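Q: Given only this backbone (294 positions), what sequence would you predict?
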């Protein structure tokens, strides 16, 4: 009961902070950056190791520059995520723009549902909220449940504010089969780390073998959905645009791992273009291929 009380208090505080205007939130972000980067040193060892492995060709100074820019952006991402609690539809439409939403209707005209693959890049959550306004068809957002049930329910509420339907990761295939007679859009984050027991494929990603989540191509082939990739760009502070990049509209004709390799390659290119906007503090490389053979 005490733990739940503190959790509810934390949610109330976040709600009140979310009512602040963006300009004031970004002042808080500047303060948070100093605290997280210089005082707490939040996961800086993880970030530095990830950057060394991903960009061995860069100098220490270049990697340090990416690291610092990343933490500046992480602070912005935190306050923007808090703002999503109360952000209006008008603000979402203003701050996140889809450059080629017509592609969605082209696929629907062909009778194709859509799987949109995102990465932990830029503000992927805000982009998903914006995608709600592209179509009035069933819109599903796949998420990985949090251990804290109160916070988990809280984030489900945020993701469903504008009509999206959050789906727990393990229920995705079942739900997709359930709605297979409808035209739907499903957003999945493609750079999730699978658990070791569910790892069956490693792709070369950012200069190292990386365990890959295969659910995207499995679902695409099961329901014969078109697969697109979110190419996201940060236009300026608090403003984004995303382009839907076609990967395949004939998933059943692709070879094993082909769809996975396509979205991994595109994500890698996006990260290399502006690396500071990827989630470097995530422990993405928890194990290697040789670890599974022990």
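A: Predicted residues:
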């Amino acid at each position: 009961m005490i733990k739940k009380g503190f959790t509810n208090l934390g949610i109330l505080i976040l709600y009140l902070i979310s009512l602040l205007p963006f300009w004031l939130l970004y002042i808080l972000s500047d303060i948070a950056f100093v605290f997280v980067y210089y005082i707490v040193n939040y996961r800086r060892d993880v970030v530095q190791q990830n950057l060394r492995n991903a960009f061995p060709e860069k100098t220490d100074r270049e990697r340090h520059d990416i690291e610092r820019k990343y933490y500046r952006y992480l602070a912005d991402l935190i306050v923007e995520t808090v703002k999503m609690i109360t952000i209006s539809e008008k603000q979402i439409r203003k701050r996140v723009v889809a450059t080629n939403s017509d592609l969605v209707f082209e696929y629907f005209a062909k009778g194709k549902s859509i799987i949109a693959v995102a990465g932990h890049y830029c503000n992927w959550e805000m982009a998903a909220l914006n995608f709600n306004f592209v179509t009035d068809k069933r819109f599903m957002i796949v998420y990985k449940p949090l251990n804290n049930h109160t916070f988990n329910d809280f984030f489900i509420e945020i993701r469903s504010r504008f009509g999206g339907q959050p789906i727990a990761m393990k229920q995705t295939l079942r739900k997709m089969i359930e709605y297979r007679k409808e035209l739907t859009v499903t957003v999945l984050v493609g750079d999730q780390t699978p658990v070791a027991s569910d790892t069956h494929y490693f792709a070369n990603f950012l200069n190292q073998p990386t365990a890959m989540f295969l659910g995207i191509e499995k679902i695409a082939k099961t329901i014969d959905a078109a697969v697109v990739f979110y190419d996201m760009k940060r236009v300026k502070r608090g403003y984004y645009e995303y382009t839907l990049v076609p990967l395949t509209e004939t998933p059943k004709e692709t070879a094993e791992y082909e769809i996975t390799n396509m979205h991994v390659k595109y994500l890698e290119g996006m990260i290399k273009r502006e690396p500071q906007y990827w989630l470097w503090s995530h422990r993405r490389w928890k194990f290697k291929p040789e670890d599974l053979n022990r």
